[in-house]
Inverse folding.
């Protein structure tokens, strides 16, 4: 999958606000093909494991509580240069710094409740996709 796949989650506040459909539309309009998609809810344990890399950061517990607070959509996306292109589509982590028209500029509430996750490398895209999906749940 190196190079042409990335992983995303539509986060609890965006799902609760009814923005998941608009975000999925923006992802498809952005040229990404959805090759896996599920509605799910992380337990605090699973959210903690997903974000283990941030364990020492001051916002870790807040992040775990938030990411397990309600349903999310998890998805695997396909496009040439998927990781970098998706990060451009979603914009900066902090919506105040995100470019006009990006998904976070349009839908994020704050740096913590920032609407969507996007993998930061091909390696993490694979790890994160495998965290949520088995091989037979990813098509193509
Ligand atoms: P995400 O791209 O999913 O990766 C790590 C997440 O941690 C990030 O989006 C934000 O939701 C959250 N995050 C990053 N920095 C902060 C911060 N300073 N305060 C609170 N949450 C943060």
């Amino acid at each position: 999958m190196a190079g042409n796949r990335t992983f995303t989650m539509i986060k609890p506040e965006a799902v609760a606000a009814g923005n998941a459909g608009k975000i999925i539309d923006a992802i498809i309009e952005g040229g990404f093909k959805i090759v896996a998609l599920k509605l799910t809810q992380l337990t605090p344990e699973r959210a903690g494991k997903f974000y283990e890399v941030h364990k020492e950061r001051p916002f870790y517990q807040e992040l775990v509580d938030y990411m397990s607070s309600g349903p999310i959509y998890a998805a695997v996306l396909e496009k040439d240069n998927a990781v970098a292109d998706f990060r451009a589509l979603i914009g900066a982590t902090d919506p105040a710094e995100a470019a006009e028209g990006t998904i976070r500029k349009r839908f994020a509430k704050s740096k913590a409740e920032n609407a969507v996750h996007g993998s930061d490398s091909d390696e993490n895209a694979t790890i994160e996709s495998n965290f949520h999906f088995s091989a037979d749940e990813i098509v193509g």
